[in-house]
Amino acid sequence: MASAPVPRARSFLAERLAAADMVDDALDSPRADGVSLAAADRRGVFVVLEGGEGAGKTTQWSRLADALRAVGHDVVAVREPGGTPAGDAIRALLLDPASQLAAESEALLFAASRAQLVRDVIAPAVQRGAVVMVDRFLLSTYAYQGAGRGLPMSSLRAVNHFATGGLAPDLTLLLSLPLAEAQARMHARGAADRMEREDLAFHERVREAFDRAVSVEWQAQHPEVGPVVAVPAEGAADAVTGRCLEALVARWPERFAAAATAALGAL
Q1: Which residue, among 136, 124, 137, has the nearest Cα to 76 in the 3D structure?
Q2: pLDDT tens-digit profile of 97-124?
């Protein structure tokens, strides 16, 4: 069953790569001032991997970073919470099963880690033209602390606007997997962290929040999250990576065509 999605992924990527060839030609064409469009746009991109526990988010975050580095991209891959000395210390506290934290404290700690990560890592890397790939960002706060913990969305939005300075992801890939399968994967990993140990009702609320985030209406109401694209996470890791690359090529054909070509050859 895991191999079934591969032909579709090959076909889709092949179509996108053909389109990317035309985009490359346009980008190389000079503007009226003699500067190519490619040279005029050197800003990096900010991509987030999201999903519930057991969806394979961290696996795909690592695989995508490796695939992009393999074809020469400057990739900065960091995780939340963490990614800085301060963030790593906060991560240890947040995920330690022995930590007893009020929901408000938890939300503020996530925001503190995010503030440090944005200023020390994400913003500088995007400015220099890197591909920044982050394992979780603001959408997780809305799903876990908002829907999961029941904290007011208005408070979470205000705190995180302060933390991020208004920086929003350019694209979020939301890995989607049936909750029962995700829970089975999570339990198979062994020792669970503090968030993974929450009861099934908590994870159901989180999953429902993620499901809402893929709608056009929800995204229009939450522009600070940026565009969100659902990626089916069933099947083999290679097939899921192919689907993630489909989403990147659909959004930036001229930037990620080479990585997609390499992945297409491997499928």
Answers
A1: 124
A2: 999 999 999 999 999 999 999 999 999 9
